Amino acid sequence: PRIYIRMYAYVQMKFVRKYERFIFPVSLCFRCLNVLFCQTFFVPDEYWQSLEVAHRSAFGYGHLTWEWDKGIRSSMYPAVFSLLFKGLHFLHVDTPELVVWSPTLLQAVFAAVCDLFVYKLAFQVWNSRIFALTAILMHMTSWFSLYCMTRTLSNTMETVVTTAGLYFFLKAMATGRYSHTALCLSGLACLVRPTALFMWLPLIAGRVAVSSNKMKVVVTELIPVGSLLMASSLLIDRIFYGKWIFVHYNFLHFNVLEGVANFYGTHPWHWYISQGVPVVLLSWLPMLLFSVWTILFKLADKMKHAAKHKKYLAVFKKTLIYNHQLQILLLIFIEILAHSLLPHKEFRFILPILPLTVCLTAPSVYNLWKSRNRIKVLFCVSLFLVNLLAAGYFLLLHQRGTLDSVKYLRQAVEQNEAEDLSVHFLLPCHHAPFYSHIHRNISMEFLQCQPNIDDTYINEDEHFHASPSDWLARKYSNFEKDPPTYIILYDVTLP
After folding, report:
1. Gap between the Cα atoms of 100 and 25, Å rounded
2. Cα 122-195-362 angle, rounded to 5 deg
3. What is the mean pLDDT of the segment spanning 392-416?
């Protein structure tokens, strides 16, 4: 049996190494199919903080939410899609369908890059191509990865950049050197999403702490790279906003110091532990718990052995520096803990821990699969099936009405180019795409729902849903102009 197992592992290793170059193309094709199957709405930021902003920048019309008026959003991520739109316009192929589909197909490329670096990161952590292949399969079939990674959310870009940066960081750490690529990617992740600091600050601080020449590292590595990235961010925002603005300070001031983010809901401190992580990981959660127990058990055994020789501090420090499994586990813990301290919580905020989780749990899942125990093999298969079933529901059924209605509107606008059409969205706050999915400068309105920062604002969304009939009577009783051609609202709010 031992000879058989060794031969089986050797053949698998040769097979994976031979076809390793096909990982990215296969992942790219898979993510393109992922885009086609993604027919549902998730969160407003998918459109209003990226595509709508890019559409306005490229074509001159589109709606900017209050965050852009206050200057608390970085334009780096929307700039990617703005360049894409301008390219389509330059080539005279900016049809409504291409304007809608091209950003998600570009995001599919980013998702495939993330899949590739999940494979590379898992190989760096375990030094096993079989475990790395298991990790990428787990990531590609994870319901939350399928649900989020092809959406135009800044969280997805943060996840892509963070996963790639961690690979280069751990690879450089194994050789005792610094990686400028890792530093650049860590800085880019923080510029796209300032909360990426939760993961990168401990890593960089720890690396500086163990350096023999700390001042040299700070002066020659961190400051130049950080200054270059910050200057690039300031320049891009200067071009977008038309003035010099420090969006990351504004983001901290409004969302953290003034607590404006709480307007969109708050949750108890334990929400990520009791709901967030179990929902995001789903069937991978028990495998994560088993992997955590295994890693901590090995660490405790090593520390127990070191304590006999009174070298536990030196052993713990060495383990913390060179044990990639423990580092990944600590990063997951820090990310969950840091986000738990913020009152406003969402599932997508902890998306970056998903690649780390599959990298950490890949050996446990693979060991289930290769075992000769039929129950263990069936359990392993069920882990994947649960994710695929959940992905199918959330990609094809859950909250798809808004996208179907906007698709109908887009087709109606294309068929009536000569008519002066108008649309009124009577939906909850930003629950449908806007000009980025219509691509025609027609009259469109929606229920205003921004935070009452200046104490002078009336929330139309709240007033409408409190009494739809009264609101409609006031709104449409005396028309100063023709009524809207289309009104979009949920059937449950029909008067």
Report:
1. 23
2. 15
3. 92
At 266, list the tokens: 């708050």
**In angstroms, rounded to a whole number, what is the distance separating the alpha carbons of residues 151 and 38?**
9
Q: What is the average pLDDT across 21-48? A: 94
Q: Which long-range contacts (CB under 8 A, 24 or more apart) does 10-19 make?
A: 12/130, 13/129, 13/130, 16/129, 16/130, 16/132, 16/133, 17/129
CB 488 within 8 A of CB 425: yes
Read off the tokens for 302. Answer: 């090593």
Q: CA-to-CA distance for 138 and 381, rounded, in angstroms?
A: 11
Residue of 479, 209, 407, 158 lying closest to 317 (CA atoms)? 209
Q: Say which range, 260-274, 300-314, 475-489, has the weakest mean pLDDT.
A: 300-314
**Residues in a beta bridge with 424:** 445, 487
Answer whether 187's CB lies under 8 Å from 221's CB: no
CA angle centred on 192, ends 188 and 195, rounded to 5° = 100
Q: What is the mean pLDDT of residues 28-50?
A: 95
Q: Can you name the residues that pair with 486 across neighbouring β-strands?
A: 423
The pLDDT score that the predictor gives to residue 64 is 92
Q: In 3-state terms, what secondary structure has residue 198?
A: helix
Cα 80–Cα 85–Cα 87 angle in degrees, nearest 5: 95
**Is the pLDDT at 176 greater than 70, yes or no?**
no
CA atoms within a 13 Å half-sphere pointing along the CA-CB vector of 27: 31
Asked if 361 contacts 288 with a C-beta cutoff of 8 angstroms, the reply is yes
Q: How far apart are CA 356 and CA 167, in angstroms?
A: 11
Span 57-114, pLDDT tens digits: 999 999 999 889 888 889 999 999 999 999 999 999 999 999 999 999 999 999 999 9
CA dist., res. 469 & res. 467, Å (int):
6
Identify the H or E element spanning 141: helix 129-141
Is there a contact between 379 and 368 (Cβ–Cβ < 8 Å)? yes
pLDDT of residue 455: 60
What is the token pair recorded at 478?
């005396």
* 2 residue type, one letter: R
| CA-CA-CA-CA dihedral for 382, 327, 350, 268, to nearest 10 | 100
Structure token digits, residue 397? 């059924």
Q: For the chain, give the mean pLDDT.
A: 87
